[in-house]
Fold:
Amino acid sequence: MSIGGTSGYTDLTALPELVAQAVRLGAELGFDKSCRPEQGRLLHALAAGATQSIGETGTGCGVGLAWLVSARRPGVRVVSVERDGRLVEHVRRLFDGVPDVAIVHGDWTDAYAHGPFDLLVLDGGGNAKGSGAADPARLVRPGGVLVVDDFTPATEWPPTHAGQPDDARLHWLRHPELAAIEVRLAPDLSSVVATRRLSRAAETP
Structure:
């Protein structure tokens, strides 16, 4: 979730309708930590590749979720986990009638009960930024994609944050289960995008 994310949307007519509705909900509730348009477009593109299921931590007001749902293939299940019960109720109403979408009220670790996923977006807990780190071996299918949002683009190696090594970013970039890269989305925004490696047995012809 990005500070100023909700207010970063200006022309709602250019958005998928469900995304526009989620942005309006965020504005009505005074929730300004939605994923930014740049992040949303990345999620939109990646969601189109999922064949079975998509997971998300940190539903917020459902903007990122709406980007994912708007691009998924028919029948792909989407599960989003949010710890704020008030937001959960609002977002459930927003997505009422949208098939194969579940908004779970709970801690990010509740995602384990619904995985593994073809695409997992760590926009809330589990991103290694202080709330623990999700285990891709349990939550992402081999060959599946993991996205961790809301980094400031690195300008040096190793990357730093507040003058110290950026342990969260390094956790994902160096994770033995993942082939990962940092993708710059704006001058002040980047995401780590990773593919879970296939097991050696799966790689053998």
